Amino acid sequence: MFTFKYWRQDLQSSLVVFLVALPLCLGIALASNAPLVSGLIAGIIGGLVVGAFTNSSISVSGPAAGLTVIVVNSIEGLGSFEAFTLAVFFSGLMQIAFGLVKAGRFGDYFPSAVIKGMLAAIGIILILKQLPHAVGYDEDYMGDDSFGTLEGHNTFSDIMMSLSRFHKGAIIISLFSLGLMILWEKGAMKSKVMKLIPGALLAVVGSVILNELFKASAPGLVIEPSHLVQLPFNGLQDFFGGIKTPDFSFLTNPKVYVTALTIAIVGSLESLLSVDAADRLDESGVITNKNRELLAQGTGNAISGLLGGLPLTAVIVRTSANHAAGGRTNLAAFLHGIWLFVCVVFIANILNLIPLASLAAILLLVGYKLNKPSLYKSSFKHGISQFIPFVATIVAILFTDLLIGIGFGMIVGFAFIIRSNLHKSMTLVHEGNDYLIRFYKDVSFMNKPELKGILENIPEGAKLVIDGSHSVWVDHDIAELIEDFTKQAPGKNITVELKRSASALSPLFKHQTI
Questions:
Q1: What are the residues whose beta carbons fall under 8 Å from the beta carbon of 470, sequence distance 6 or more?
Q2: Residue 67: pLDDT over 60
């Protein structure tokens, strides 16, 4: 289940992922009109359950911003959060079924350029979305990754508004946190003992101390409670007192199962995309078993639903933070779940001292690491067929959301694949009055306009050879087009010879010459 070979790196990384996951769990629950504890439960289960069962080295699961709209509409449609958690439970069972029938193989169809574009887009979104939090403007929940907001604003308008509503203390804290983490990574301030402490944790502790110093010496710079982590409970009793478990009286309500299927499908797609991206980040070369991942996600969702939690998926933001912090195995994801539970239950009052500006600084650094110039250079070097789907995915995700953007990127990617195959399906060569059309691989109806144009330009008195000996399959439309041309050819004094293919599936090539 776990390997402890890299326990030091995983321990350090788990603390960073915990700091990132904490405000995201709260923010997503808040945006979903769900109890705040439900987001934390999903985060804890994502670490303890999914983290234990996945074979991905660096993937981290928790409540996902991509499901927020579905959650809001589902709670409203079902009439209660307790009915919704029943749907979450059944969505987990459905995901387990997906894994058992090996539906994870669909995750292998995502083009490489699209996955790279997704990683870059997430990095850009992290930077754009965290800039307002870094300057003390916290109108949107932390973890929001959609272009539009519930207030009718968008990513860029929020940045513009933050410029006129910034907080000097927040700016100082975010710059302090960024500077400290950068120096820490460069080794400028490390000793052998201090290497065990992640720079992000030190930055957060330092920001808490700095804000306390503001209270004593610079009241105008003090970060107000609205710009700090806000856990609404303190202690074990408060935590469990806020849990809302499933209402099984809704078992006969068909809306529950429609909601469950929606969550299962969307959540599975997002998880498969995230683990595919995680595999590309992971230098160890471990390839995630996607069927096992669906089983792990399904188990996590079933338990999260039973305990009153939100639906969860593998989440690229937490995963990217884990990779950036040096996580090496799934032990890091598991430990982050432990920190979430222990710290939220026992030291909530201390966590409530953490400025969001400091946590935003952590995510800004993660965003930069996902958008290094080398990523764009590498994609460009692979040619236009890779670069354009890469850029299209980035732009689409930035201006819509993750799944819509990925869908658009795949359409662009497939368009290039089709274009490439069409151009490789046939060639035309000629010398004097002799013309040769040669087919390769499959020739489909998509090649019909190209072939029609070629045939229309064959001059009178020409000798034409159509060579199908290299083709595997020729579409009926193509065969019909050639047959029509051969009937009209004598009128233009054109002779046509067909070279048949033993494997071509067209009756046209059963005859050697027409």
A1: 438, 439, 440, 441, 501
A2: yes
Q: Name every residue whose Cβ is closer than 8 Å to that of residue 198 and which is 6 or more positions away in sequence.
A: 12, 13, 15, 16, 184, 325, 326
pLDDT tens figures, 290-340 = 999 999 999 999 999 999 999 999 999 999 999 999 999 999 999 999 999
Q: Is 258 helix (H, G, I), strand (E, B) or coil?
A: helix
Sign of the Cα torsion 111, 115, 117, 118 reads: positive
Q: How far is Cα 274 from Cα 320, in angstroms, rounded to an integer? A: 10
**Ranges of each domain in the chain:** 7-378, 379-422, 425-510
Distance CA(201)–CA(182), nearest Å, equals 13
* Buried b or exposed e, range 418-456, using 16+ CB within 10 angstroms: eeeeeeebbebeeeeeebbbbbeebbbebbeeebeebbe
Cβ neighbours around 226 below 10 Å, total: 9
Which of the 8 DSSP states describes residue 110? S
Nearest to 128 by CA among 151, 149, 112: 149
State mean pLDDT over 51-79.
94
Out of 79-88, 158-167, 502-511, pick the least confident: 502-511
Q: Which CATH class is domain 425-510?
A: alpha beta
